[in-house]
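Hello forum,

I keep getting stuck at the same step: I have a sequence, I want structure tokens, and every attempt I make locally crashes halfway through. Rather than fight my setup again tonight, could one of you with a working pipeline run this one for me? It's a single chain of 156 residues.
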Amino acid sequence: MNVFKSLITGAAFSVAVATSAFAAGVELNASSTGLAMQGYDPVAYFTDGAPTKGDYRITSSHNDANYWFSSEEHKAAFEADPEAYLPQYGGYCAFGAAMGFKFDGDPEHWKIVDGELFLNLSKDVQARWVEDIPGFIEKADTNWTDIADKDPASLQ
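Reply #2:
Ran it on my machine without issues. Output:
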């Protein structure tokens, strides 16, 4: 009986996770399981000044995406004000958004500008982006209104 109960519980959990994964829209750069930022802790950029992998056991959901945190304190800070910690452009590459595309944002290539977190695709892309951060942010902000709800593949 306990084996059967465990199987039913596991199946129900799997369905719940799968359902929540499909709920994350194209405006968010999340994995097929709904994990945002490749499991990096969004609060750590602001508090620790470095990208830090989160712990799958310390999780919070926001806008149908799942975020992992390196501590309960970071989770609490995020839940109190998620918008303060979320990366811009749904976690997609800031330079890509400036060019009108949606490329993965790599949590290892980041910058905080005016209290906002920006991710970029790679070291080389970020080097190009930092040549004119204000100009690229302005372009990305303008483009984002047109591309936020589009599937990344449709922009290629």
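Residues 2-22 have pLDDT under 50 and may be disordered. If your local run keeps crashing, start a new thread with the error log.
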